[in-house]
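Reviewer has doubts. Consider these tokens.
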Amino acid sequence: MTGTYHVIESPLGPMLLELEDGRVTGLWFEGQKNAPKDPVPSGDPSPLSLAVSDWLARYFRGGVPDPALLPLDPPGTDFQKAVWAVMARIPRGRTVSYAALSRALRDRGVMASPRAVGRAVGWNPVSVLLPCHRVVGADGGLTGYAGGTERKAYLLRLEGALGRPPMEYEEFNACIGETERFHGSERS
């Protein structure tokens, strides 16, 4: 099946939502790197597009909606999916460095350099729902964001994380869970 597209308005401009087989496979800001070129949005909202729109509205009002309520299924390699699974555990209001994210993956059996992790984070096709905006430089700097660093700063400010130092590895590791191990996109 080919995905269907819906436009959702946000305080940061229009967002393009891609749905396929009842799952969320993409969410990009207008003009974002890696977004589909010239998609044709559906004229009619679907129950899932309305649920994503509601989730985003609550998020942008300062709420803390649970992304697990939405059926996320971003396409990617096993490595990218492993990075995104660990990245999804970064709590709202906090940030993690690429190095800490890389170490968390290595400690769970996924060989990952900070540079490779950065590439996978940059290819996250589900902005906001998978919080790639919470991954920062070791000094807390707003290094790269496919949606633009101004949007990254806005999202972090909204969450109360802008200006806070990134979590140390040990604190982040406790958020992930000591026994959880990632192997590709499979969890064991």
